[in-house]
Design goal:
Layout (H helix, E strand, L loop, with lengths): L1 H17 L2 H21 L10 H30 L2 H7 L5 H28 L8 H28 L3 H6 L1 H6 L15 H8 L2 H15 L5 H28 L1
Helix pairs in contact: 1-5, 2-3, 2-5, 3-5, 3-6, 3-10, 5-6, 6-10, 6-11, 10-11
Length: about 250
């Protein structure tokens, strides 16, 4: 399975590298949002920190991931509609290799996008006191979040009837950080909005990453964020696998 998955992964990555504008396009929106909030709105937003880009970055990274998984749906949709997926499953390879190749491609391409966003943040003044272990934990959380959303993306990639339908689901995910602690503290929100913001996955993930990068003490946020990521990934994997078997027999 590993060798077959590697071959299929190589095919998808070659397609991306031939057209690197995919990675650049995914990075543009979160980078523009970061520039806008830091240099236009940053002076009017009270977060209790001296460096707003430090406060903002974790949420921007989650936006970049949510934007990137839309291309997973699109790539999968194109393979299904072109008949390429049906040809793959008739070959002497494990069927799950086909889906895992798309998932791993998403993980690699989004990792490249995240690195681009962090580099721009460094130019804007982002600084962190995190050690190597803290950075590895941040990478782990971002990786789990990417896997969770990617398996979620597999479902519309298999079921959508049009290219627009395959990618439309990602729009709410991109804007979910706006109703969280990503841009402003939840304490400043009206009560009803605050209740939602404090009990949705983005807030716990943002808080955990922020603590790892700056405070060094994550408390319960790390466990809550891991529970959200693993829970979403498990449910999405179940339904994606079920739909894959139903669609291609």
């Amino acid at each position: 399975m590993k060798s077959k998955t590697g071959v299929l992964l190589g095919r998808l990555m070659r397609n991306i590298m031939r057209s690197p504008d995919t990675i650049i396009t995914v990075a543009i929106t979160p980078i523009m949002m970061m520039l806008l909030f830091v240099y236009v709105f940053g002076g009017a937003i009270e977060t209790g920190t001296d460096n707003y880009v430090n406060y903002l970055l974790p949420g921007i990274l989650l936006m970049a991931i949510a934007s990137g998984v839309a291309y997973t749906s699109l790539r999968l949709f194109n393979d299904v509609k072109s008949g390429l997926m049906a040809r793959f499953v008739t070959m002497p390879i494990k069927r799950s290799s086909v889906l895992w190749a798309h998932v791993l491609t998403s993980l690699v391409s989004i990792a490249l996008t995240v690195v681009m966003v962090i580099l721009v943040a460094l130019l804007m003044g982002f600084r962190s006191s995190a050690g190597i272990l803290d950075w590895l934990m941040v990478a782990g959380i971002l990786g789990l979040f990417t896997l969770a959303l990617t398996w979620l993306a597999v479902i519309p990639g298999l079921t959508a009837g049009s290219m627009e339908g395959a990618t439309a689901y990602s729009y709410p995910l991109v804007f979910l950080p706006f109703i969280s602690s990503a841009f402003v503290p939840t304490e400043t929100m009206p009560k009803i909005v605050r209740v939602f913001a404090e009990n949705q996955p983005v807030t716990s993930i943002v808080n955990a990453i922020r603590a790892l990068l700056y405070d060094g003490s994550v408390g319960n946020d790390i466990w809550t964020s891991l529970a959200w990521c693993i829970g979403i990934m498990g449910i999405a994997y179940f339904f994606a696998s079920k739909e894959f078997k139903r669609k291609l027999g």
